[in-house]
Every structure is written in structure tokens, then in C-alpha cells.
Amino acid sequence: MNHRTRILALAALLALAASCGQPQKPSTVGTTPEVERRVEQLLSQMTLAEKVGQMNQVSAGGPVSNYADALRAGQIGSILNEVDPGRINEYQRICVEESRLGIPLLVGRDVIHGFHTVFPIPLGLAATFDPALVEEGARVASVEATAQGIRWTFSPMLDIARDPRWGRIAEGSGEDTWLDARMGEAMVRGYQGAQWDATSMAACVKHFVGYGAAEGGRDYNSTFLTERQLRNVYLPPFEAAVRAGAMTLMTSFNDNDGVPSTGNRFVVKDVLRGEWGFDGLVVTDWDSMGEMIAHGFGADRKEVARQAIDAGVDMDMMTYGYISHLEELVRSGAVKQSAIDDAVRNILRVKIMLGLFENPYVDVEAAAPLQYAPAHLEAARRTAEESAVLLKNDGVLPLSADKVRTILVTGPMADAPHDQLGTWAFDGQKEHTVTPLQALRERFPGRVVYVPGLKYTREHKDRFDEVVAVARRADVVLAFLGEEAILSGEAHSLADLNLMGSQSELLAALRSAGKPVVATVMAGRPLTIERDLPNCGALLYAFHPGTMGGPALVNLIFGDATPSGKTPVTFLRTVGQVPLYYNHNMTGRPYNGETLLADIEPEAGQTSLGNTSYYLDYGAYPLFPFGYGLSYTSFAYSGIALDKGEYPVDGTVKVSFTLSNTGSRDGTEVAQLYVRDLVGSVTRPVRELKGFRRISLRAGESRTVEMELPVAELAFWGLDGVKKVEPGEFQLWVAGDSASGEPVSFIVR
Ligand code: BGC
After folding, report:
1. In angstroms, what is the span from residue 490 Cα to ligand 1's centroid?
2. Whole-angstrom Cα distance, residue 184 to residue 197?
């Protein structure tokens, strides 16, 4: 064999290895050979400048002329923050008709919990434990938003949040990995639709990754998650959403263990692209590329642009780092042409799959009647009903409409149409929002007396004489408390989680009137409401409930609907307990209800108090555990049994139990399945949610229910850094919350 034939043979061998040696990963976004053919065809016609242009996303708004030249020159691949369908059409026209290659724009928007029709904030959506309903809500959002030309939403936010000081806890599903994953999948399905059509809106799972673990609950702060925590707790919801077909993903602002996400090759290239095979689009968060300079990770925009492309980030949101420096970086050899081509492939794939080339424009006339369509409002109302959590009821609820002649409505959230929408509701208009006060007045004309007591939640007052005087004359007091939308969400963290201003004092004053007091708290986070509980007969917790919050809450208060929401996050007694979440690991000295400060003699000297893990002043338990929520009826679990005692690692645990409605009203219970791995190569959480079922039962009805737990769900990343099920003994609970129930045991061999 001469030298030339040897080289040719080697080349053929390499080609063969490339074609059949490495099995091709299936596409996570569901691309087809035809889509890929179109991607390659376009790519082959593009100049480097045009490619880099596709990788640039800018915030629009203002006159179209501001962006016309850049669009014509192919320097913008995507815009965000434009919602006017006429202007969006004009942007598309310039791209399609006046740019050299006619590539349409991808128009993005934060459609987080509804577009015009606003649903409860995501934390409230999670409280429904009802993925099918959440999917329906995301579909509604998509139908409304796509009608106006928005084809990409920056949702769902899948950041696990175990610190309610963090304002963005409002935007996610709370503290649990499994619940978060189910909610994420539901939203992805809802936004993108069962098949690709003009109502499909690409989902963007965010913020990748760890952002919710901000130190001290201060937004944007550093995180220090180990790889094991990332893999066991923070990454699974993202993986689930990717498997559900999410088209896009956003890198987060935080630096984890010193590496900002937008420059983090490990999470983006190795895990997301490599391990999960993600072939969708990765976008930065707003200027998170530029912020790597502030972090001290790169010296200037050119360097951070190189770091971001090296990490595998396709599109730059608002740093102008790619558009300013990528061409130069490619020419100098610092960035490979192939890296640019891969990024552009990921972007074009989304545009082609969304059908933007065929249908770049929307019908402006047709868009308007879809907004706030009756069916959309109805879905929002049902969701708000399922989302509210009844935390206390001494029997005052539900009210009976014919027994209350005079209803005092009070509190700063009773008639706050903008604030009940919650954070990220830019497009929800307050004129369309129905507040509790409006809903009550409509339902009980002439019977409602409204005295706000406090205008804003932050207002301080010493006396509440007027409202207390009216309370004395009323049959019932409905107090709407909480926090305005501005007090949670991005960059709106708090250090004190008690009801603000004089709200607690208002509630205490109302109680002194001696009439039944029903408190409803509308908030973006679980506030510390322990001191308020004694001052009301019932307390309904509504994470900002959206456009139809008023009618939903009134239906619940008057028993036309029965509460079924469950807390998606632990409610703390005091903020000093942070972080306190149900699925913590076990200490070597678990708290056992030992002596609290109040029980220690003032004169007591140094003494042993049991030496367990707790706070002297607050113990170690929360106010309400994860998964908690009352109904107007009661439920009992009995006969919990497994089909076997032992299972192989590829088996399925079948659990059956009887759920009985032991009260006198119909109701719906969220049955929750928890497990504990008793001994692992690393310590495992005391309980982990692995399943739930919403079950509706008539008063007095009992039903045998079966749930399945694939043993594979018990896998985790252990000491050897491999994800697997570790055989051994497990406990399993089926219960109405994370702190109840008796375990049954099983073995995995
Ligand atoms: C937020 C993102 C959001 C983006 C675009 C950022 O400040 O962190 O969640 O999608 O802005 O509005």
C-alpha cells in the first residue's frame, strides 16, 4: 500500500466510524431530514456577517424605523418586547422582503402566566398540582400571544426555590424537583402545542442553572451548588422539559461556584448538549453575557463573547457582544467557523419548525377577538380556584350566601386590579381584571360595604376605628391582605416576610369586633403569617391569582367551589428558618420536639437541651409543610399496600390505597406519593415526592386508588458520580401532605 492509498483508506475508515460508530442521538426538538435540509441550504448561502446577525437579539419597542436598517442588513435574528401585531408584521416584512435571504424574525416575549388573560403566577399554578390544567393555561397564553405575532415565550422558569426571600420564587414551581418537572413539561406542551402550527409558541426553559439558589435570597447573587446537588435537584426539571420537546433554553445570571452560566461549558456543552442531546436554541439572559465582565470572569465584551460561544450559547440577548465581536473572533482564529455554524443551525431550525418562513405575518383583525375570549377567562377562573390553598378554617368557611346580609370588605388587596395579576403580567390589563370587591358587589348588590382600612400593604396606621365600627355592624368580615405585585418577581427580594405595614394590626383590630373574619392573602411568595392566624377564622392563601382572581375567590368563600390547592413550598414560621424545605437530608441529630427557649428557666445555667438540630426560639418545624392544604370536607387514607415486597431495579412498584371523603361535602384531594431511600452511598432526603393524583370524591364516598412508581424513579447521582438506583430498603408514603402518613417498606434488589 503506497502512502496515498494508505491515507485514502484511513479517511474512509474515519468516515465510516463517524457514520456508524457513534450512534446519532435522537433530536430533542423533533427535527426532520427535510428541516435539516432546509437549514443546510440556507446556511450555505449565508455570509459570516449574516450568520452572526441571526445570533443577535435586541429589545424593540419604539418606532420600527429604529431597527429597519439593521433588519434589512440581516443584523438581527430576534427581537423581544414588541407586542403590537401591526408593528410585528412590519418587522417581518422588512426581514422577509427586504433582507438578502428573507429570513423571518423570531419574536420573543415574557408570556409567563398568560398573555392578556392572566392566570395565577407560576407558584400558584404549581399549587394546583394539576398539570393538565396548567397545560391548558399555557395553550390559552399561546393562542392569544401567537395571534399577535409572538412565537417565542421565555417560560417556563424551572428554578427550584427554597428561599422565599428571593422574589422570583413567584415565577417558579417552588421547592420540589418532581413537581417542578411535571409543571415544566405541562407548560412546554401547552405553549408548543400537540403539533406545530400557527398557534405554537416555542418555550424557553430558564434559567439554566441554579439561579434560584441565590445566596441570602438576594436576586442575581452567587450560588455554590455542588455537581451532585445540581444533578439530583436542580437539573432534572430542565432535562424533563428538554425531553418534552422544549425548543429553547436560557442561561442564567448567576455564577455557580465561580462560573457564570453564560460561560459555563460544563452545564451547556457537556450536560445539555452532550448528555441530553439538546438540539434547540440556547439564548443568554438579558445581557448575562456582558455581566460576565461585572462578575470578573472576562475582561471585556470581546472576551465574554468568546466565552459564551465556547460554552455553546447560540444567541445573545442584549449584550451586543456577538454582533460586535464574533466576526473578528472568527477571522483571528479565536473562534471556529463551525461553532458559528452550529449556533445558526440551532436558530434556523426553530424558525423553520415554527413555520415562520411560510407564515411570517399575523392577521391583525383576527387577533383582537381572541384576547380575553370567554373560554380563556373561564380557564383562568378555574385555575385560580384550584390554585388557592386553604390554610386555616375553624368552620367559618364556606359562607352561606343567605346568612350574610352585610359583608364588610376590607384590606389593601380587595380592589387592586393590577396587583392581583402578580409579577410579569405586562400584557394583562387592569380594566379586564376582576377584583374580589367587584365580584362581591356584582354578586351581592347592596350588601357589600367597602372600607379599605389600608390603601397599600406598606401603609402604617395606628388606629382602625372606622373599619372596626363597620365590622361590628357586619355579619362577616372579608379581609384581603398580602403584597402588591411589585414586591415579588425579578430583583424584588425581601429580608422580612411578615405582612407589611399595619396589615397584621388591621386584622387584629377586625377580630376585636367579634364577627367572623375571613382573611385572604394574595402574594408572590409564602409570607410568614403565623402571628396572623389567631386573628382570623379562616385563611385562604392565593398566590397572585390573575385576571379572574376575584370571582374565583368569591366562589371559594361562598362554597361554589371547594379549595383543593396544596402548598408547593414550605411555609415558614419566621424568616430566620430559611432554608427550610421538606426534602432535606437527615442530620445525625434530628430534632425531636426538644425544649424551646420559652420553657427554659431564666436562671438556668449551661445545660444540655438534647443536642439536636433546631432553633431554641422556633424549633425545627415549619408553619405549614409542603403539600399542605385543607378542603371543606375531610379525607382519610387507609389500606395502603404494595403489590410486592421486593422489586428489581427495572420493576414498577404498584401501590393501592383507599381514599375516603369522610366529610359532608364533595371535594378533591391531591394524594401525594413520597419515598425515602433509607441508606445510600450518599445521604438521601427524608422524603421525596415521586407522584401525585387529584381525586374527586362525593361526600361519604370511598375509592380504591392505584398509583405506580417505576423503580427507575429512585435513581440518583451517588458517590461514584453515576446515576443509578442503589438497591436496599425504601419507605413509601401516600398522604395528603409531606409531613403526614405512615410509611410502608419495600426492598429493591
Ligand atoms: C429575566 C428573564 C427574562 C428576560 C427578558 C431578564 O431580566 O431574567 O427571565 O426572560 O429578562 O425579558
Report:
1. 8
2. 21
